[in-house]
Amino acid sequence: MKTGMMSTSRLKQLLDEQQVETPIHAIVRALGGEGSMSAAALCRATNLAKSTVSVALADLKNSGIVVDSVIRERNNGKAGRPAREVQLNPNAGTCVGIHLELEGLRLCVADVSHSIIDELYIPIHQDYAPFQGLTAARAGIEKLYKSNSLARSHLLGIGISISSPVTPEGVIHKASILPSWAGVNAKELFSNELNAPIFTDNESNCAAIAELMWGSAANEKDFVLLKIDLGVGGAIVSNGSVIRGIAGGAGEFGHMMIDPHGALCRCGNRGCLELTASFREPVQQMSAILGRPSSIDEIILMAERGDMGARRLVSNCGQAAGRGLAAICAVLNPPIIIVSGRGALAGEMLIGPLKFEFENHALIKSAELAAENRTVIKMGKFTHNDSLLGAVGLVLRSLSSSLSPQLILNSP
Amino acid sequence: MKTGMMSTSRLKQLLDEQQVETPIHAIVRALGGEGSMSAAALCRATNLAKSTVSVALADLKNSGIVVDSVIRERNNGKAGRPAREVQLNPNAGTCVGIHLELEGLRLCVADVSHSIIDELYIPIHQDYAPFQGLTAARAGIEKLYKSNSLARSHLLGIGISISSPVTPEGVIHKASILPSWAGVNAKELFSNELNAPIFTDNESNCAAIAELMWGSAANEKDFVLLKIDLGVGGAIVSNGSVIRGIAGGAGEFGHMMIDPHGALCRCGNRGCLELTASFREPVQQMSAILGRPSSIDEIILMAERGDMGARRLVSNCGQAAGRGLAAICAVLNPPIIIVSGRGALAGEMLIGPLKFEFENHALIKSAELAAENRTVIKMGKFTHNDSLLGAVGLVLRSLSSSLSPQLILNSP
Fold it and tell me: Within this chain, do residues B230 and B365 fall inside the same structural domain, yes or no?
């Protein structure tokens, strides 16, 4: 770990010098954001000449900041040589992700080469207070670092995923899942106590970052994410950045009003998309029919086994989501829509009706469009831990932040 | 005009060299996009030192490309010296804007200092064919240049505003106002025949560009425009660029479905926002009551004079628009919403109910937010000719295009 200690302090220094634009700085930032890259990919990302990248990489390898990574096949099925890649030294730095859940915290630690080292769940209880979350986070981080023999001095930053709109400044507004956190500045709270840079974002925005960095949207710059679970969440990624909105309320697709005479929503409005496109009502209905608590997973399993009632519930969710996506498409007309969340595990039983109603309600129909002008709907890669992964992603992406412009509709 | 001829060819050359990054090029691009600027503003826009800007400006003035502009008061009511500004030489180049209207073309010509020189309307007839539009455009441009003693060789580009979604490539998809134009590539059609660079965009996107360059959104980078007229149009400006979407369908707010049981819309869907937030139905109802054709202007005038029926029609439009904007806000949460179109001439009678219903349906209420996190709703500056002005703006903005990144959700 001696190399680790030296390379950590040098890495921290390089990352702190965000205004400096030497080839070394540019390469370190690119690797921080991307994980593993070939020399050719580094040339493209940094706009540097091949020879410049070679010299800088030799220097970075000598000082232990960059190492060769496992050679990966990246041929997309075509013949050709697999590319040799480099990455930041896993010993040079670690990041922590925290997802504030209903009754506790989920944590993970990852290294700067984008490998998840370990995960941990700390139960608290429903409606836990901010100071309890903070205490649990401190204990969880200590446990993760101790049990994996990691040096706490290697911690580069902590990303926090929150089930509520969060302002760009870190203030939690609507705390439907965490009522006692309303009005709390999570960024300030955690950075005062945990002595590390803190990054906060809404859980669906974190989910989008996970899909962007390692999932179905890898290599995409512009897409919309719709997360179908017990609620409906969403995110907008534009030019590689998550759009947050002036109050952190962008991508709150679940609370678009799609029926003026619809039922009352937990947010206080009527006819929100979430009421018909989430699995909350299906779970309630199935629980009533079975006379015991049911779940999203059970409904999907029943539907897969041919239960007509379960199939109808899944199909109705898909139809409502498709209508909602058509309205979102009238606003954004995105090139790609990623459907994720536990509801997406229903696969074609959900996506089929979703696509049918999307097309039915879309202003510009696919048949009128050349293939390159059509919106593509595809499944997300992650269903359960995307928000936690995205929380780590917040930190890893911050390492490369000076590379990408982030001025779009008040993105972070 | 001798200076004009010389400076035009030099200006064209400078503008063609989009990859070249000398101070001279940067200053010419900034002035092309902004019109008139102080030396201090040029330093900020180009990131150049004051002395560098001084030297380059002296050079540009010597060659007749840049001239001093009329000194304008820019103190926002505070005491202080008015700033001395410079602009591109009005004689150095001209641009044409064309708005394809229902029964003919509206044209204007402007110079590179952002002054409108003249306007012209050429009637054709309803459902005119593309070749008729092209013939009328050619004749109109000749007439405008002849009657204003302008040299055709000074024409830098033509911007065309179209009442339909337009793909980034220039293809017209849905041609609700111009049925015989469906599928036509307007950019190709006009550039083949008019021998000038052609820029095309949707009319609401052009309206947003007019507000951005000279109107209520001057100096803003991120806003949403909602245009209330006989239809409902919209546009999204993100980081200073209009978002067009993968098929040119972004900002089509009028066709968000806000009522699954609503009436049939001309687009083929049900319950579109346009059905309740536009003045089409109010005009139909007032015409039926009066027994003769009424108009937006008449309804607003009647409402201003106290007619309770007219007031109700205006107020209902505002309420529907407010509900629609709340849904748009759940998607984008923009810092600013500009309300424009002829309907906006109703002022507080429309905006009052609009703001009330917006707040009523917004996910995050203003009262929960610090002032800097609130969405501000304000009136547009233009009501009638914004699309035509924006068409000219398309050309003027292209002059500075290499300055601004435009990769956001497939913006132009």
Answer: yes
Q: Distances in Å between the alpha carbon of B260 and those of B256, B271, B273?
A: 11, 6, 11
User: B350-384 pLDDT, tens per residue?
Assistant: 999 999 999 999 998 888 888 999 999 999 999 88
Contact assessment for residue A135 and residue A177, using Cβ atoms and an 8 Å cutoff: no
A110, A396 contact by CB (below 8 A): yes
pLDDT for the residue A294? 97
Range of the domain at B160: 94-208+387-391
CB atoms A331 and B334 under 8 Å: no
Cβ atoms of B97 and B388 within 8 Å: the answer is yes
Q: ipTM, 2 decimals?
A: 0.85
Structurally, chain B folds into a number of domains equal to: 3
Chain B hits for A409, Cβ within 8 Å: 222, 238-239, 332-335
Shared-domain flag, residues B202 and B317: no
On whether the CB atoms of residues B198 and B184 are closer than 8 A, the answer is: no
Tell me, yes or no, whether A412 lies in a domain: no
Backbone angles phi, psi at A219, to 5 degrees: 70, 5
Q: Are residues B194 and B233 in the same domain?
A: no
Distances (CA, A) of A377 to A147, A311, B49, B67, B358: 42, 21, 48, 53, 30
A375, A256: one domain: yes
From B333, B407, B409, residue closest to A246, measured CB to CB: B333
DSSP A361-402: H-SS-GGGS-GGGSPEEEE-S-SSSHHHHHHHHHHHHHHTGG
In this structure, the answer to whether residues A193 and A246 fall within a common structural domain is no
- Write the single-letter amino acid at A108: C
For residue B79, how far is the Cα from the chain centroid? 33
Taking the C-alpha atoms of residue B225 and residue B208, their distance in angstroms, rounded to an integer, is 6
Predicted confidence (pLDDT) per residue in A168-214, tens digit: 889 888 666 677 888 899 999 998 888 889 999 999 999 999 999 99
Q: Are residues B84 and B101 in the same domain?
A: no
Q: Do A375 and A226 belong together in one domain? A: yes
The alpha carbon of residue A168 is apart from the nearest alpha carbon of chain B, in Å, by 9
Examine the fold and report which residue of A60, A91, A122 is the final residue of a domain before the chain moves on: A91
pTM metric for this prediction: 0.86
- Asked, for residue A411, whether it belongs to a domain, the answer is no
CATH number for the domain spanning B20: value is: 1.10.10.10
Q: Are residues A116 and A41 in the same domain?
A: no
Q: Distance (Å, rounded) from C-alpha A43 to C-alpha A86?
A: 13
Whether residue B403 lies inside any domain: the answer is: no
Residues 254-293 on A with a CB inside 8 Å of B are 255-261, 267, 269
